[in-house]
Amino acid sequence: MRAPLGGFDVVHPAPEVLDLLVAPVAEAVRGWNGPVPADELIHVDSDPRWADTATFLEHYGPELLDQSANCVVVAGKRGGETTLAACVVPSGTRVDVNGVVRRQLGARKASFAPMETATGETGMEYGGITPIGLPAAWPLLVDAVVADLPYVLVGSGSRRGKLIVPGKVFAGLPNAVVIEGLGTAA
């Protein structure tokens, strides 16, 4: 099988490699009922040393920048309440945490969630968090640019491997809201 983007050597439909996925991602793939068949969620093997965007692009090719997205966990606070949410933005951008995210969550203050919170609440590894398999109650904010891409390279839940999925998948995930301008110039 060939990946729809990138020159990856080891490529499989995600349902065939559930054992390579962290539990919440494997569970989401196993129970998949999204806008495309589960077989269109592609897992590609990649070295965990190159999981972070900059080193990943150095190793696998800078052309993937325009076809990849990062998923980050944010915390919005209002009064004594904290709301955790995930944001999916093009890899070449930063999440507009203090503008778009804060307003969307109705928070007085918003910031990136601490690493321990992000990994503990998602069951995923830092540097590999993906929107597929997040806690169902969380808001999922998706930059419109990502949702419009034919295919998007995102984390797989662990630092080893990535998922390649059609961009339209993100709009169909639980509590997803597609937003223009969620990602700003880095």
From TrEMBL:
<dbReference type="Pfam" id="PF04073">
    <property type="entry name" value="tRNA_edit"/>
</dbReference>
<dbReference type="GO" id="GO:0002161">
    <property type="term" value="F:aminoacyl-tRNA deacylase activity"/>
</dbReference>
<protein>
    <recommendedName>
        <fullName>YbaK/aminoacyl-tRNA synthetase-associated domain-containing protein</fullName>
    </recommendedName>
</protein>
<dbReference type="InterPro" id="IPR036754">
    <property type="entry name" value="YbaK/aa-tRNA-synt-asso_dom_sf"/>
</dbReference>
<dbReference type="InterPro" id="IPR007214">
    <property type="entry name" value="YbaK/aa-tRNA-synth-assoc-dom"/>
</dbReference>
<feature type="domain" description="YbaK/aminoacyl-tRNA synthetase-associated">
    <location>
        <begin position="63"/>
        <end position="166"/>
    </location>
</feature>
